[in-house]
Amino acid sequence: MDKPESCPLCANVLEGEIVRTAQFVIVQANEPLFPGFTRVVWRDHVAEMTQLSDRSRHDLMQAVFDVERIMRHVLAPNKVNLASLGNQVPHLHWHVVARWHDDAAFPASVWSPAAITTASSQRVRTTLALLNDYHDALRQHFQTNHDDQ
Predict the structure, then answer these.
(1) Can you list the alpha helix ranges (DSSP code H) found in 22-117?
(2) Residue 102 in contact with residue 123, Cβ under 8 Å?
(3) Which listed site, 51, 52, 117, 129, has its alpha carbon 20 to 30 Å from 62?
């Protein structure tokens, strides 16, 4: 499918880019209250999972699950939220969101109004301290496992 000029996820380089493969890009979302919030963006401009071939759907979901696994290993959240919405940007992408009992919105979604507390402020600082290790683990995994793609 043609890449529309107005689609922010079709850019050659995405803000917060961590890893780029032939099929997808992994980016650190700019969500200051939720460091570790990661997106897996399919490189071709499609809006829905059913627009992908069976193999591409499998590859995309494997990437999402690998990001979740690495996130759980390095950041150790209490829970990981997975979401694919695309209502505002109709370009296929998945949100992989580390959640802690003391984050600014728990147990509500990260799109709910946040309540910044001392605990949630400490959570942000603690998670920020781990982000380089998390990004390095993502790079290592995806560059090793996707060099041939």
Answers:
(1) 54-75
(2) yes
(3) 129
Identify the structural domains of the chain with CATH numbers, from first to last: 8-100+130-143 (3.30.428.10)
User: Is 28:38 a contact under the CB 8 Å cutoff?
Assistant: yes
Q: Which of 62, 46, 106 is nearest to 81 (CA)?
A: 106
Element (H, E) at 38: strand 38-42
Percent of the chain with pLDDT over 70: 95
SS3 label, residue 27:
strand
Q: Quick one: which H or E segment has residue 129? A: helix 118-145
Please choose, from the candidates 70, 16, 62, the residue with its C-alpha nearest in 3D space to the C-alpha of residue 39: 16
Instruction: Tell me the per-residue pLDDT of 130-139, one tens digit each, with 9 for 90 and over.
Output: 999 999 999 9
In whole angstroms, give the CA distance from residue 24 to residue 37: 17
